[in-house]
């Protein structure tokens, strides 16, 4: 065999070995990110209509304002949070997302927080998040200014006008999912809420209005605790099950403070008390027993506790659990298959990964009949 042939064969062998080596080679750790996880720039439109360029998937986030952190937790984003507001570190009672992720309270401060607070650009910038999610605290100009001051994309979210099961909150959940790489989870969360609301509606849709008992909910929290006069027209758990809420006769939407005489005139068949204000109602009962004893629901023992859900805006999980509980009380025939406690834990577990009803009941009382005289 000539040396030319030998060189040719040797060259082919070398090429084959190189090809085989390439097929089995592994990229060193930290190189060649998994498919679908490469960081890229993406332009999104937030809930104020602002176009914001973000790097996705965001690995570090800050959530500011009433309810922003809650939505991030729903979309499996708690581990990406690098700082929380001081307000979030206070008493966690009534906020299931903090009960589910207590480690969030140990993170660095992202500013004071609270419904009337202003974002702290310096603290936010020091945390070096990839994105800032924010609710309520800013308008378009303020959001643009905060983004300019921090050099970090600011994405504004919304809970809608009534801060419950509205399209705005669903769009906010989807937007978070898109930005942090949890689009599938976000779609699952939105679907969960939508299917639950449809199921609740279907259970009572065939009951004529005049066959439904009248109901009232008192002592609702509204920037603090209030007594029996604090109620809500279009109360979300009642709306979900088509309940006949006497407060809807006001023609209003949202929080309402009524006169006591109005409650006597309405004289509802069933009375719910928000357990966040239950102590105020019981204290008032001791001072004015005749007023309460004039109410049909009190005389007939149809007074029930309901878990408070308005803590740093709406805890959608608790509001949904309350809807099933209210359905069980108002329309027992239509909710025979529902155990409200088990249903509550199903909701908490799906949204936050833990059954939290027991802790909520320990803090407030839970789903039960109430004797105001005790």
Automatic annotation (TrEMBL):
Alphabetized InterPro entries for the sequence: ABC_Transporter_SBP, ABC_transptr_periplasmic_BD
Upper classification of the organism: Bacteria, Bacillati, Bacillota, Clostridia, Thermoanaerobacterales
Sequence intervals crossing the membrane: none
Organism: Ammonifex degensii (strain DSM 10501 / KC4)
Limits of the Fe/B12 periplasmic-binding domain: 60-334
SUPFAM superfamilies: Helical backbone' metal receptor
Pfam families with a match to the protein in the record: Peripla_BP_2
Official protein name in the record: Periplasmic binding protein
Family: Belongs to the bacterial solute-binding protein 8 family.
